[in-house]
Amino acid sequence: MGKIIFIFPKMASFIRLDIEILKERYEVVENSYPWQKKHLMPIILIRQFFFLLKNLRKTEHVIISFGGWWAWLPTLMAKWHKKPSYIIIHGTDAAGFPEIKYGNMRKPLLRTILRKSYRRASYLLPVSESLIYTENTYYEKGRIIKQGIEHFFPKNKTPKIVIPNAIDTEKWQNLNKERKPNQFITVLSPGQFVRKGGEIILNIAPSLPQYDFTFIGIEKPAHLNKIPENVRFIGRTQPESLLEIYSEATYYLQLSIFEGFGVALCEAMACGCIPIVANTNAMPYIIGDSGYVVQHRDEKELIELILTATFEKKTELGKKARQRIVDDFTVENRKNLLFDTLEKGEVKQ
Predict the structure, then answer these.
(1) Is the CB of residue 228 less than 8 Å from the CB of residue 57?
(2) Strand positions, DSSP E, 75-143
(3) What's the domain range around 207?
(4) In terms of domains, do 321 and 338 share one?
(5) Per the CB 3.0–4.6 Å rule, which of 27, 124, 172, 308 could disulfide with 270?
(6) Which of 193, 207, 178 is closest to 272 using CA atoms?
(7) Does residue 173 fall inside a structural domain?
(8) 0.90 exceeded by the pTM?
(9) What CATH number does residue 106 fall under?
(10) How far apart are CA 87 and CA 76, in angstroms?
């Protein structure tokens, strides 16, 4: 059994899934440090150097999840040792959005680190086509905001292979509970409230008192003194409880200003929620014809779309949403694409 070094900044459900997939064929050696603690950076880089020095010689592949400081040494040393390296691009590592204080590309030094790492890597593996290049027309009407690897690094020639994230459709499925017809839910983590569209949902809620809007994954942000009566905040939720919530809600709102993929969106769709998404990145492609797309970050437009969706009562869209995930975003699909890429892995000269 060959060995893979798998490097990541911190654990997440989609990273854990990738590790589980890779363990089917490889011995996986994990490497992670508290990269968010900037004052420890010199020590962490030294530790990572000696880790790589010890493990690279007997390693077949080096996989790095997210582009960041943790990718600089691995791509450099993998090239020295003539080992193929791969960087999985997830979102913030292909974005520079100063208006919402999001994206690694807005930080000059980190952007330089990414330029060098992306150039040295054997392959870049974005989770959606939009991370290679996209034009955001949602954030502000009449304005085009360019994002993606090719926008920031137009001279980068590293091969790029899109491998979409995966959803465990056995785990995430409709429990056949009675749906709440006026229930809209959004899943997000602390720090994502603005980027995921939390503010616009709060702003429209008073105009739609007949509907309930629930945020899952965060407590009420401290800067909010008062929230509309039809808005709730539920903190971190266990997967079992989240599955129940997905199976009871009718609609899932994902109004992200930038979204590399949308794992929670896919989980909700797999459970039969009807998606309503912003016209950003890969989300319109992910939902296909199983939901609704808001073209601009405009409150009036969003209100009209929600009223249209609830008036049409296209309950069959929930089934169509799940089928969309089953057809294109399964674990088996990601597994096959990952293993195919590793099998043809070549060291970049």
Answers:
(1) no
(2) 85-89, 123-126, 134-136
(3) 180-328
(4) no
(5) 172
(6) 178
(7) no
(8) yes
(9) 3.40.50.2000
(10) 13
Structure tokens at 339: 């293993």
Cβ atoms 76, 53 nearer than 8 A: no
- Rounded CA-CA distance 90/39 in Å is 25
Pull the structure tokens for residue 297.
């970050």
9 assigned to some structural domain: yes
Q: How many domains does the chain have?
A: 2
Q: Are residues 144 and 213 part of one domain?
A: no
The tokens describing 69, both together, are: 């400081």
Q: What are the pLDDT tens digits along the chain (349 aa)? A: 799 999 999 999 999 999 999 999 999 999 999 999 999 999 999 999 999 999 999 999 999 999 999 999 999 999 999 999 999 999 999 999 999 999 999 999 999 999 999 999 999 999 999 999 999 999 999 999 999 999 999 999 999 999 999 999 999 999 999 999 999 999 999 889 999 999 999 999 999 999 999 999 999 988 888 899 999 999 999 999 999 999 999 999 999 999 999 999 999 999 999 999 999 999 999 999 999 999 999 999 999 999 999 988 788 999 999 999 999 999 999 999 999 999 986 655 5
Mark whether 143 and 112 lie in a shared domain.
yes
